[in-house]
């Protein structure tokens, strides 16, 4: 956990080595002022706030530097002292009127952003959330009288009002990037978490503070070190969280800077960066769920059987004309909630083993639906767990499950990967007193997915782990980020932009559920460029429109081209999706999603029009056959 909740010594060691040297200044700034590429910060003496301006000197905001329980004026009539620990590292200390140290913050000034590690006091008897960027006397970040705000949830578009996010609510990305942005006169100010909290909600509130629903009753998550400063020794306090403050021209650039800052401070990179992904990860993900809904064969319906899956695969292959794809056996193939024992509808373990083996013999891959917060965790209506992440019992149980699901022994199912679902159903931090602080909220999900991912890769290093976790702290424990239950092309586009901005190089699962007929082709074009396409329907679209054979064949050709394109980093530029390998353009969509183009060095570009069937390959063409010559 040191990488996520660094004390002062660990933070300084990480930031000093990761964030790089100061940029060369054209002229020396005045004392107490630092000029970075995207912002300038001034530390006025005797105050507990920083002044942010643009590099050109235009004012941005005043930024208080302390954190503590929301509600009481615990910092009223306080005394602020500041020590400079290094050329770009400041330590602020706040003592209340009685002379008690109530808060301290370490500020690291870096090209990537302004990093603040907050130490404060907890009140075990209080249920109040924690407020950050406060002066302890009711004040927060200075905001203009009117502004737009952005949080990577909901419609994912700038809107009037204060930004906030709930990682535990029904969300297309769980968790989304933990970054809130507000438009100031000089640019977009981002306040993003670097460390992961025992919390699920994050809100910028009217007084300008950022509030997290962290539980105080659970006790101190990490003891802050006692420091001998010029202003006197400080401690003991609790290290609460590390944030990064960014400044950008627009919220998408702000998300990119947030993701890069998290990666720089933590050293995290995608677990499977472009160029290392198995080729089959780019085959279309043919998920049973959509057709299950059409056929009323969902969940524990007696209609959802091995025979149903086999019939679905045959009908999908006949409609779309592809030989190679990945079958996702969705909910509920299990005998009970969260179990990994196959249902009797699938013939138990022998029946599902035979189904998977048969699909393998047909040249297909198989991914199994896997819900979180079930199984070894007891889940009732209140979501109370008896076994929690970050315990030996939990990790051992997951290891046994992964062996059974992904292993190739005589008793194992031999699947190729997992569609990890329901990440947003993480426990409420209000359960802190029963479960312990290190097993809640976003941090609990991080521990859970980390255990699962390591266990899966220990059994099958090439297995696909597909999740909806889009915050950059999770990029080392997911292979694909799923866009999750959109119903309009604009939603898929916005969600994909969030992932490609905050997690450059992360592969995306296009998650076609539940696409309407008039957007199916465009959604396919986009998804094969920014990631891996998903297909949920064999006979009827999400709006009930029958799927025409010509449309299915056109989409099949798009899927095949996507499977053949070279791997790279996806970007959204001037209304089109592109894939880059360094400075080389690999692939892009045509304007208005009218088709796609693949580029190969020394060869003519390969263009596939999405306006009709003229360029379709023959039925049954392997994805590799559409690779440009």
Could you characterize what this model shows?
The structure is a single chain. This protein has 629 residues and is α+β, with helices and mostly antiparallel strands. The chain is 23% helix and 25% strand. The strands form six sheets. It has a nine-stranded antiparallel beta sheet with strand order 6-7-8-9-20-15-14-11-12, covered by helices on one side. A hairpin with a 7-residue loop joins strand 32 and strand 33. The radius of gyration is 26 Å and the shape is globular. Mean pLDDT is 87; it is low at 1-10, 21-27, 376-387 and 613-629.
Task: Please describe the structure with a list of short key phrases separated by commas or semicolons.
629 residues; alpha+beta; 9-stranded antiparallel beta sheet; 11 helices; 23% helix
Work out the helicity level: 10-25%
Termini gap: 49 Å
Oligomer: single chain
Q: Please report the total strand number as a whole number.
A: 33
Which segments are poorly predicted (pLDDT under 50) over 5 or more consecutive residues? Answer: 1-10, 21-27, 376-387, 613-629
Query: Mean pLDDT, nearest integer?
Result: 87
What is the CA-based Rg, rounded? 26 Å
Strand content: 25-35%
Summing up helix and strand content along with how strands pair, one would put the structural category as alpha+beta
- Spatial strand sequence of the major β-sheet: 6-7-8-9-20-15-14-11-12
- Number of helical regions: 11
Global geometry: globular
Largest sheet: 9 strands, antiparallel
